[in-house]
Amino acid sequence: MNKKLVILGASESGCGAALLGVRQGYDVFVSDAGIIKEQYLHELEALGVPYESGTHSIERILQAIEIIKSPGIPDKAAIVVAAREAGIPVISEIEFAGRYTDALKIIISGTNGKTTTTALTYHILKEAGLNVGCAGNIGDSFARMVATRQHDIYVLEVSSFQLDGMFDFHAHISVLTNITPDHLDRYDYDVAKYAASKFRLANNQTAQDYFIYCADDPLTLEYMRQQRINSKLLPFSINSEFEYGAWAKEGSIHVKTNENPPFTMTIHEMSLRGIHNTYNSMASAVVAGLLDIRKEKIRESLANFQNIEHRLEFAGRIKGVEYINDSKATNVNSAWYALESMERPVVWIAGGVDKGNDYEALRPLVREKVRVIVALGVDNRKIHEAFQKDVDMIVNTGSMEEAVHVASGLANRGDIVLLSPACASFDLFHNYEERGRLFKDAVRNL
192: helix, coil or strand? Predict the structure, then answer.
């Protein structure tokens, strides 16, 4: 029997899949068109898995019974097209790993808020003493976790790219935080195709499962009307009340998932600030309610949760100026949420690789909250065009060290220096994590 399994991409997702593949008796081959990081090279060699880097050997790859593709490789890549034309299934690592665990699976996606909601949901469940793992786009790959640990519950952050390669995966609870246009270059610049990808969360769900969604998000509501969703629907909202779900009213959140009285908690008590985090907290609390976690434990967890790195992360306070690292804000919507949560004047560090951004939605917040923009990128023209009439000054910078130095010089006591770029990082940095770390380093060096 042919058990040849080919994995395209040798980072965390690919190497986790290789580990699980070996443990499940597959003949594994890993192919990466780029350079494989040293830590993953060592892992593949220790597993005895053959690999190649810098190329794809098409003949060898097309011998596979199945191919697992890294989410970073587009469906239009020549090797993926060739595999599908040859009739070889191309799946995601999440799809593959889901076959080898009977655990309850919670999957969370959305354009914004998915990482915070995933981390917060995991925090609540872990604090309640449940045997839970957190994987996917956050932490270890799902495949690595299934191969090395046994959890009763998995909380998985999944991107649209991962969802595109999921066909038979069954989520018991799925959460869609919101949909705003993003990554449209991968979806033929068609938001309907991007939305359809997000709604794959509900694929294979039954009437015994749950689909949790934001009832205030116009695109979610628009595309829900076009989807067949078999699971029970649980909305969350800051504008409307429901029989079941979550809502905000008079400074408190209310969560009802069963016949018991709703869980309530004041927004002021919660550790996460801003409207976007009220949404994230409600979504996580709905999940917790479905798993019958005690209200006291939900309350305690929402109050003591520490936000993830690079998402509105406190980076220091120097001479009365607070520095906040929101490097994970790689699109306009994320930056909107960050600016909305600011309660003092802002010196805003923004810019990078523009993904077709429309900055118009940010302008009212910029006029209200931002004094100065420090533009950080190779090409800052769109930042100037969008905001030159809305702020006192826009200053161009070409490195993080320079940006932080300039921002500190322009900030007044009581101001906030906010790194929330609204853009991808690839013009000056390897990824948003490096961008955020360099921001924190530069703040420490002031």
Answer: helix
- Structural domain that includes position 24: 4-91
My answer on whether 121 and 49 are in the same domain is: no
Q: Which are the contacts of 78, defined by CB distance < 8 A and separation ≥ 6? A: none
* Claim to verify: residue 76 and residue 125 sit in the same structural domain: no
Residue with tokens 């070409």: 398
Instruction: Tell me, yes or no, whether 330 and 300 share the same domain.
Output: no
CATH number at residue 60: 3.40.50.720
Residues 141 and 72: beta-carbon distance below 8 Å: no
Greatest C-alpha distance within the chain: 70
Task: Decide if 339 contacts 370 (C-beta within 8 A).
Answer: yes
For residue 362, report the phi and psi dihedrals to the nearest 5 degrees: -85, -20
Strands 313-318 and 321-325: antiparallel
Reported confidence tier of residue 185, pLDDT bands at 50, 70, 90: low
Residue 11 one-letter amino acid: S
Q: Quick one: pLDDT band at residue 183, thresholds 50, 70, 90?
A: low
| Opening angle at CA 326, ends 320 and 329, nearest 5 | 150
Write the CATH number for 335: 3.90.190.20
From residue 108, give the alpha-carbon distance in Å to each of 17, 123, 211, 232, 290: 20, 14, 10, 16, 15
Name the amino acid, one letter, at 382: K
Length of the chain measured in residues: 446
What is the secondary structure of 185-214 as a DSSP string? GGGTT-HHHHHHHHGGGGTT--TTSEEEEE
Q: Taking all residues of the chain, what is their mean pLDDT, rounded to a whole number? A: 93
Q: Which of 34, 69, 91 is the last residue of a domain?
A: 91
Q: Which residues pair with 263 in a beta bridge?
A: 255
